[in-house]
Write a structure and sequence with these properties.
With 191 residues, the chain is mainly beta. It has helices at residues 3-19, 22-29; strands spanning 31-49, 54-72, 77-85, 90-93, 96-115, 118-135, 140-159, 163-172, 179-190. It has 2 helices and 9 strands. The chain has an 8-stranded antiparallel β-barrel with strand order 1-2-3-5-6-7-8-9.
């Protein structure tokens, strides 16, 4: 074999080896994922207007959960849809038992920064929800359906090529509530 043929064969082998893993790598970087998570939701309301009076300074938390699905468009972007139940935080304020129920769905856009098996991410979307705030001993309540901006950030870790665990902090800008945030621990299976 002469030097020209050896060089061409070497170059071809090098290119094929470089291109060979590309489809498998691309499959790992994009596609469908499904998951669920549990978290702690905290809500603070300065004034709750019930039928008879104003209740001040409601600050409580409760266990929350969500299920979600999404599509990764390569390594850096994804779209996600979550069903979020923020639990039923309750507290006694001025001898009145007050509780809040919030649930709904949220579409998000995510941006990720992959660092090996770890990735940092930020997300933003809108939360379409139903909210009920009850002052049980007063017999009054506030019921509403609305949508508000939601955003957050976190860190994720991919294990066993498909299982993606993530820890995130999220702020929900609910118009009827002064402060609403959640800390989530979730897992997703990347297909």
């Amino acid at each position: 074999m002469n030097r020209g043929m050896f060089g061409a064969a070497s170059l071809t082998a090098l290119l094929l080896s470089a291109l060979g893993p590309a489809p498998a790598f691309a499959a790992e970087e994009g596609g469908l994922y499904l998951g669920a998570g549990a978290g702690q939701f905290n809500v603070e309301i300065d004034d709750v207007n019930t039928a008879d009076e104003v209740i001040e300074s409601f600050d409580s938390d409760d266990t929350s959960w969500k299920v979600f699905g999404g599509w990764r468009f390569g390594r850096y972007f994804a779209a996600e849809l979550d069903w979020i139940d923020l639990g039923n935080p309750e507290e006694t304020v001025n001898n009145v038992n007050v509780d809040a129920e919030i649930d709904g769905f949220a579409p998000y856009l995510l941006g990720t920064l992959p660092l090996g098996p770890v990735e940092l991410f930020a997300k933003a979307g809108y939360y379409f929800y139903d909210i009920t705030v009850n002052g049980r001993s007063l017999g009054g309540s506030v019921d509403d359906s609305n949508e508000d901006f939601v955003y957050g950030a976190g860190i994720g870790l991919t294990l066993f090529d498909h299982l993606h665990a993530r820890l995130e902090y999220e702020i929900i800008d609910i118009s009827e509530i002064d402060d609403a945030n959640a800390i989530w621990l979730s897992g997703a299976w990347r297909f």
